[in-house]
Amino acid sequence: MSSTDRVGRLLNLVPYLLARPGIPVEEAAGDLGVSDRQLRDDLELLWMCGLPGYGPGDLIDMALDGDRVTITYDAGIDRPLRLNQEEALALIVALRMLTETPGVGHREAIERALAKLESAAGEFAEAPVAVRLAGNADRLEEFRGVVQRGRALRITYYTATRDETTDRVVDPMRVLVVGGKAYLEAWCRRAEAVRMFRIDRIDAYTETEEAAAPPPQARPTDVSDGVFQPTPDLPLVQLRVGRSARWITEYYPCEEVQRERDHWLVSLRAADLGWARRLVLGLGPEVAVVAPPELVAVVGGEARAALDAYAAIPAAESTVH
Q1: Of 164, 213, 226, 303, which is most buried, counting CB atoms within 10 Å of its CB?
Q2: Residue 170 · residue 189 · CB < 8 Å
Q3: 54-89 pLDDT, tens per residue?
Q4: Domain boundaries, the chain
Q5: Residue 210: which of 152, 156, 165 has the closest Cα?
Q6: Contact (CB, 8 A) for 208 and 148
Q7: Which tens digit of pLDDT belongs to each residue from 226-285?
Q8: Is 169 within 8 Å of 152 (Cβ atoms)?
Q9: From the CB of residue 300, how many other CB atoms can be counted at a distance below 10 Å?
Q10: Which of 174, 166, 171 is nearest to 189 (CA)?
């Protein structure tokens, strides 16, 4: 039996058992079309599955009373995997984005999964949705050509941490792919330092007649630990994080994670407090700011303003039909 078949069975096993507490293992195995031994192996695997954190209260839990099994914690898998049209299209778009992302491994597996999903979605998968990342393979080669020609560039660049677009002149040094994202590393004359520019955030560029000339102190960045490398001079942000937002501890480098009963206290460095503000507001009620005080004040003020704006909407206008 393939691993794909087993994953599909495991996704349906939890809601099946939730609907039948105390069912005999032998009866469940017969319903699912597997052997008693295979079902017991599946139950052993389920004990190691769950939510990020992977500790008590995160992993799927069950009670085995003799030959009877009961799920005591489902980790959110409380129904069989059934995708509606919007969910199927979202997955199709996400997989198409992965196939366009340079440096992504297991591309053949992604393409097989995409083909199966498109086949299952039928006509809906043919919706007029085209996916093309700005940092795809074609543009990657385009910027490699820029580096080889050795010309200074005038670029229009969007800086996500400050949510602003700037114009600057840079001296290209190299193009590289880190974590599936393509970057142009260059000496930035505005910052007077080496900077990594994400290619998908370069809105426009023009090659100048001037030769690229990074100064002697310009050195390639060590990206063995990732592009963003926190330093002690950056603002330290402390967040109280709920269960559904714990993924940020895997996505962003954290200095400390204190696992409390209902929440985690997470400490991380932010390149800019404006970036931290947008991160917290985007995560909603699952995250609360503990420090620094200025971030607490800004986020609290914006949250109250948003609530006041909702309260000002007349009841007739706020009704969704």
Answers
A1: 303
A2: yes
A3: 666 778 888 888 889 998 888 777 665 566 777 777
A4: 3-73, 85-126, 137-211, 236-311
A5: 152
A6: no
A7: 667 677 888 899 999 988 888 888 778 888 999 887 889 999 988 778 878 888 888 888
A8: yes
A9: 12
A10: 171
For residue 149, with 0-12 CB atoms within 10 Å meaning exposed, 13-18 middle and 19 or more buried, which class applies?
A: exposed
The dihedral region occupied by 54, where left means phi > 0, alpha psi between -120 and 50, and beta the remainder, is left
The DSSP annotation for 19-39 comes to TSTTEEHHHHHHHHTS-HHHH
C-alpha separations of 115 from 80, 95, 98, 202 in Å: 21, 10, 13, 32
Residue keyed to tokens 């591309």: 107
Bridge partner list, 71: 62
Please give the Cα distance from 32 to 38 (Å, whole number). 10
For residue 183, what are the CA distances in angstroms to 47, 97, 138, 262?
Answer: 40, 17, 14, 39
Secondary-structure class of domain 137-211 per CATH = mainly beta
Site of tokens 């520019």: 197
At 207, the amino acid letter reads E
Give the span between the Cα atoms of 134 and 200, in whole angstroms.
4
Average pLDDT over residues 91-118: 73
Structure tokens at 220: 């390639």
What SS3 state is found at 49? coil
Adjacent-strand bridge partners of 23: 69
Confidence of residue 101 (pLDDT cuts 50, 70, 90): low
Residue type present at position 287: V
- Rounded CA-CA distance 68/70 in Å is 7
The H-assigned helical ranges of the chain are 3-18, 25-32, 36-46, 85-100, 107-121, 137-149, 248-251, 273-283, 293-311, 315-318
Given the candidates 1.10.10.1100, 1.10.10.10, 3.30.565.10, 3.40.50.970, the CATH classification of the domain at 3-73 is 1.10.10.10
Identity (one letter) of the amino acid at 16? Y
> Cα(309)–Cα(126) distance, rounded to whole angstroms?
39
What is the model's pTM? Answer: 0.44
- DSSP letter at 284 equals G
